[in-house]
Amino acid sequence: MLKLRGGVAQVGYGIPTYLNVDNYGFSSTWNGTTVGTVYGSVVNPEILPEVNTTYEAGIDSRFFDSRVNFNFTVFQKVHANQIQDIPIVSSSGFSSYRTNIGTVTSDGIELALTLVPVRTQDWEWSVSANFTKYVATITELDPAFTEKWIGYGDGSMLRLKEGEEIGSMYAEEGFWRVQSGMYKGQIMLKPDTGTPIENDDPDNRDYLGNMNPEFMMGFTTQLKYKSFSLSMVMSYRNGGVYVSETAKRMNDDGKTPWSLSGDGNYWEGGRSHNGGYAWPDPNNVAYDVVREYNEANGFLNEASYWNGVYVDPTTDYDSQDRNLSDDAYVLNGQDPNTTWYAVVNKIVGNTWDFPQTRTFDATYFKIRDISLTYDIPKTIAAKIKMQAASVSFIGRNLYLWTKSGRNEDPETAFSGSGTTQGVAHYTLPSVRQLGFKLNLTF
């Protein structure tokens, strides 16, 4: 059987009275006089209700006595007239102006496939999989919001701009990087400390990635034999990133391996199992400013340094010039006698303002649920006045694989709702559960 389907649906969100008119009220009493209050937002008198319109088309098919089932759906969702508050000067008597700001359009596809490879009198084995992919984009924006940066979570920001993909995250504090030559892309270091030069230029903020997945997949399988059944539920998320506030705090408290030894991406050295780098002989250090800094900060064999380049301090070049010739830069770490060293806690402390150092791939695979069930024969259930009865052994959260290799569940950064999707806040590890279930139908 093959069925084609399509549809259009539209839902409007009516504006409550208190939102589309200016409001006044009364609060406390001051010196015997009742104080009147004005609602914080002035409302656009021509404000329109939000409207969600969904366009959908698909194919449903079943073959071989329903042993092969396939569904395909393509959809577009248009969320128009979204309402938002625009900040305005407080001298107006209001804090914001409430109006329609624009439209977000989501395009996606969904696929589902179910196979029954085995079906006999005693045996049945079924396998199901589903696939989902979507992209949401700001397709229209009120001119008042030509471009706006919104503070998000743990040093990340979102950009409100026409054409921007929803979920894209940027660093509030970025790294100043070389723009040309053999060191293009290298972090630029300060000429007096060897720490990164911060970049808060709105036009050059570091892109952290998009919190939304490239795609999601779900898998279920069930094997039945007479009165026994074994089922398993699995899920896979591909792509997307998240920022870990948990990692930030644990790194700063020295409770992670990363806080003891650099991973090579941003910094090197530290208290690794091989020991850190030794401070060089001051008499051999090439630059006075580097020697003085190292002597003031160095002790023990735990020397660390930022990966990056700095402008040769013996020249008159601008230390923040990102387009100098290659010979104007010194590669930190290439030669111990030209390297800015620091103790571990100073390096880790410097990473506090840079969410890039704790942004991780959100790809994961999970075995969510495994259950073994025995259906008690109805003749026995009838003797105890039951229509049906079964007993199950259940296991949940039995396995987790993460592409980042961290012992942190990426899904915790996306659970619930609100303005912190894509940021993991002090989340506890997933709990593995094992138990029994008795199901009785009267």
What does this protein look like?
- This protein is mostly beta strands.
- 8% of the residues lie in helices and 47% in strands.
- It contains 5 helices and 26 strands.
- The protein has helices spanning 17-20, 245-252, 288-297, 344-350, 378-383, and strands at residues 2-13, 24-30, 33-38, 41-43, 50-63, 68-87, 96-119, 123-141, 147-151, 156-161, 168-171, 174-175, 198-199, 207-210, 215-225, 228-238, 241-244, 267-269, 304-306, 309-311, 329-331, 359-361, 364-376, 388-402, 423-424, 433-441.
- The radius of gyration is 30 Å and the shape is extended.
* N-to-C CA distance: 38 Å
The helix tally amounts to 5
Strand content: over 45%
Q: Which secondary-structure class do the elements indicate?
A: mainly beta
Overall residue-averaged pLDDT value:
85
Q: Tell me the overall shape.
A: extended
Q: Rg, please? A: 30 Å
Question: How many strands appear in the DSSP assignment?
Answer: 26
**Largest sheet: number of strands, sense, barrel closure:** 11 strands, mixed
Q: Tell me roughly what share of residues is in helical segments.
A: under 10%
Low-confidence segments, ≥5 residues, pLDDT <50? none
Condensed summary:
The protein is mainly beta and 442 residues long. Helices cover 8% and strands 47% of the residues.
